[in-house]
């Protein structure tokens, strides 16, 4: 008996504060309800009537539908107001304080993510904001977790994401983001670092993520061309060389007057299109690139290239045979 009592006491003190308070309040209400029923059975015909009176009195609501008539019953009511009323008030204050603290921790990135099948984005910058806006505009439901160590807080009501504060290359941070149940991870380059240092951080983060989730699809942004191979060795499924892409846009914008009409609108056209990377559909496995390109054209989509054996090919030979493990690069309208 003593052993069970000791275990019960240990369990009680190990529970969260608000739960302990709730159990204490519930015990007092039941206790006083049972006592008043025993003292005045005529005024309180059932134990539930007594509990109802105890809850209404202890919470200082006081409907007056049940009242003690005897002196002893009123003394019990006085003790209930002194003990139970204070406990109820303290419980409500504790719950309110816990709610405020939870919301503050949520904004400061201190709360672990509990979902699954989500996308993890590393780094808070303009590219991340634009990506979030695109996802919000064109994807109905998507769970996103942001990992960043530079932000003191991020309004969880302003952005549709879960914020985790910390270094994405550390296991404890990745665990808080629940990387084991994530579907995809996007690692953006840190704009506050030098290019070589930023690439090293991205590669280190890729290694850590791959080690904790071998099946995770990882997209890594790399600035220097000579670091692309290292990013792939680290476990990146797709490597984005943002410097090359931006340089191409700058070049076409700078010299567009020297180009024929179709090139003049290159930047404008890109803004209304979206690139998709998809696995080869089962019905296209073993078919030629030309056959697949025609199939996509019938759907008003443009097949640009493919990723095969870790290499990206834009406009490959038309007779190239597609394999099941290949990925296709498709251009389609954002409105679709």
TrEMBL record:
The gene is yugO. The chain crosses the membrane at residues 21-39, 75-93. It is found in: Cell membrane. Residues 116-240 form the RCK N-terminal domain. Gene3D superfamilies: 1.10.287.70, NAD(P)-binding Rossmann-like Domain (3.40.50.720). Keywords: Ion channel, Ion transport, Membrane, Transmembrane, Transmembrane helix, Transport. It holds the Pfam family Ion_trans_2. It is a multi-pass membrane protein. It comes from Pontibacillus salipaludis. PROSITE patterns: RCK_N. InterPro entries: K_chnl_dom (IPR013099), NAD(P)-bd_dom_sf (IPR036291), RCK_N (IPR003148), Trk_Ktr_HKT_K-transport (IPR050721). This is Potassium channel protein YugO. GO terms for biological process: monoatomic ion transmembrane transport.
